[in-house]
Design brief:
Layout: E1 6-7, E2 21-26, H1 40-49, E3 53-59, H2 68-83, E4 88-92, E5 114-119, E6 122-128, H3 145-150, E7 155-163, H4 165-172, E8 177-183, H5 188-209, E9 211-212, E10 215-219, H6 221-229, H7 236-243, E11 263-268, E12 271-277, E13 282-285, E14 291-295, E15 333-335, E16 341-343, H8 345-361
Parallel strand pairs: 2-7, 3-4, 7-10, 8-10
Antiparallel strand pairs: 1-9, 3-5, 5-6, 8-11, 11-12, 13-14, 15-16
Helix pairs in contact: 5-8, 6-7
């Protein structure tokens, strides 16, 4: 049974007339210097490949560098990020390439800031600092003018919220159900999981019931890179994995190996209730020359702790609750550069998707 953190009012409108929900919000405390900026490739990926609903604040390259209006607008963006939890991305309109031409992002020879609302490549709205009706959007840091105007086109909620260590600690200390995904932004398995399982599930629940429970996403990529490339520094990545029960050494029930991503966790009243690990299985050959899953988070020993797999209120079938020890067809096995076998992403997803959907349903 899905537990609703946000219940939207019932509505007699047709589904296509309902304002879409933004894909990502943020609980990370932002400053003018920390606002995320997208490249051409990143913006194309988010809109064309991932079909995200997002807010895009554009500036005009060197025309905006010394302009007070752009600096003021960045302060507005921080205000809304920190209080309304909107994830607003920056983009240099002057640097856009041909791949983005159909987005109709304006490139002008002055410093005019603009704000766009996109649903995939479809432009839902464009606000301009030169438009008298829009001016307050770009300078108001008291009355949430930006949030009010954007709210005409999208819901004031998000499916997923970015968190960091400080914001996550505060969120899980609250006496509510909280789902957290630990990922790395450069991990293809993490990207696959969020975009092919988590988002579709949440959108499906929202479309069916007008309710959903948002998930929180902790991107551990910066900590991973610090530990990997700066050998003399404190092992921040390893420490975080241990702190949040990702490693088997820190939590034999919820942790797995030395801590892997993507890992999902459910907190209730500041307590970690259960976890789900997507992919990250080991493949070996047995004495009969058959391939099998030699290690997995989903083992017979751990099954009693995975209470979400014992819920019968599923609208799908879970064929395999225990993956460790299961034989796999040779045709599903690939090999890395060292000759070690692993399951293809597509085939591994067939086993793991029902398990993660069960986790999300609790």
């Amino acid at each position: 049974m899905l537990i609703a953190a946000l219940v939207l009012p019932s509505c007699s409108k047709e589904k296509e007339n309902i304002r879409p929900i933004m894909t990502y919000g943020t609980y990370i405390k932002h400053t003018v210097a920390s606002l995320p900026e997208l490249s051409n490739e990143e913006l194309f990926d988010r809109l064309y490949n991932k079909n995200e609903v997002l807010l895009l604040a554009t500036y005009q390259g060197e025309y905006s560098e010394s302009c007070a209006c752009w600096t003021t607008f960045k302060n507005v963006i921080c205000y809304e990020a920190n209080y309304s939890h909107y994830q607003i991305y920056l983009f240099n309109a002057q640097a856009q390439d041909e791949s983005l031409k159909d987005l109709k992002i304006k490139k002008v020879n002055n410093s005019t800031p603009m704000l766009y609302v996109f649903h995939g490549p479809k432009q839902l709205a464009c606000f301009s600092g030169d438009n008298n009706r829009d001016k307050e959007i770009f300078r108001d840091t008291k009355n949430h003018e930006l949030a009010c105007r954007v709210g005409e086109y999208v819901q004031p909620y998000c499916f997923l919220y970015y968190v960091d260590e400080d914001s996550l600690d505060k969120i899980i200390s609250e006496n509510y159900m909280k789902k957290v995904f630990f990922v790395r932004s450069k991990c293809s398995d993490c990207t696959y999981t969020i975009n092919n399982v988590v988002r579709p599930f949440m959108e499906e629940q929202y479309n069916k019931e007008y309710l959903f429970e948002p998930c929180y996403v902790f991107d551990m990529q910066p900590y991973y890179e610090i530990e990997k490339y700066y050998v003399d520094t404190e092992p921040v990545y390893s420490n975080l994995k241990a702190k949040y029960h990702l490693t088997a050494a820190s939590d034999e029930k919820n942790g797995y190996l030395n801590g892997v991503v993507p890992t999902a966790q459910q907190y209730r009243n500041n307590e970690l209730v259960y976890s789900s690990v997507f992919f990250n299985d080991s493949i070996s050959k047995n004495e009969s020359d058959e391939y099998y899953i030699s290690d997995s988070f989903y083992s017979e020993e751990r099954l009693p702790y995975l209470t979400y797999l014992n819920d019968d209120n599923f609208d799908w079938t879970i064929d395999h609750k225990v993956l460790k020890g299961m034989k796999v067809p040779t045709s599903d096995v690939l090999f890395n550069s060292n000759g070690s076998p692993y399951l293809s992403q597509e085939k591994a997803a067939e086993y793991h998707t029902p398990l993660l959907r069960a986790f999300l349903s609790m």
